[in-house]
Amino acid sequence: YAAVSERFAEDLQQFLGVESPDVFPVGRGDRRSFLRERPESAVIGSSLDRSKTWETMPIGDMAGLFVADILSDTRERNPESIVAASLGDRIFAMSIANIGTGLTNLSEIEIAKRSKMTIDEILQGGSGARYSEYYRKLRAEQQAQLRRLIASLLQRARKFNFDQYRDRLATTGELTDGEKIHMEVLGKIFKQRIRILSNSALLRSALNG
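Now predict its structure.
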């Protein structure tokens, strides 16, 4: 279900205000592939800036990617999967790969475990650990800014009507029967993760390790 999972991750990133290359599922069947547009195409006229690291990318974009990754259950986030695109004096951080997003390549038992994870468990491994490391490298005032941004983004995420989004994909014929079932599970995790991240005290403690 990589195609529909990548599509969901990309759509969620854009909903949260993060520039993201569009994803286009290709073919038919549960194992169909997908195409992703070039990152420069997501921001017309931009060019990649390979000199930027996570610490020098816009903190607002990094907050958006953090929230989107946790809510879409993107399990891995290596540094090379986020790039910077520059347009004039503006820099945009964007994902060019959502590795292991949306419960892809997991057994039913593994999916059940991920649907019950605590905030500590989420931030101790995979993409969560990467963001925790990023957070701890920030100055105290930047850490406070990131937490405020996350809280604001969670408010926005609550306005993402997952059921409506799933139904729209289904009615346009974009989902297979297997993908429809897969989306049901994704929706449950999405809603659960919003509740988990909304506990600001637990989130701050988990980020601090």
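The chain has ten helices and five strands.
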